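Sequence in, structure out.
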Amino acid sequence: MAPSWLKPNRQSYADWLERNPAPDLLALAKHYGGLGRVPEVKMQEFEAAREEWESRRKSRHLDPPDSSSGVDPVDHDESEPGADIPPDILKKIEENMKQRGIGRRPCLKQEDK
């Protein structure tokens, strides 16, 4: 069983973005009367904040779900890979695989017996 921190987070990107807004370059430029007038120190602080935000954005799926999402951060199940593929598309994929001689891989998840 995967550690709880490695399980995917089911919150949407829009929800995450609402709670974690990106640093606003336009607001910074307006504050100083134009992008060319922003002091170098403030621009460096902005770039550091943007890089930190990018890092959090790229790893957001590893963040534990918050309590408002209704998902228990420890006990939520991982979804089955491909479970959200529409049946008609899945059928086309399987036909293509069959034509190419590629079989289905065995399930990696051990079933409780």
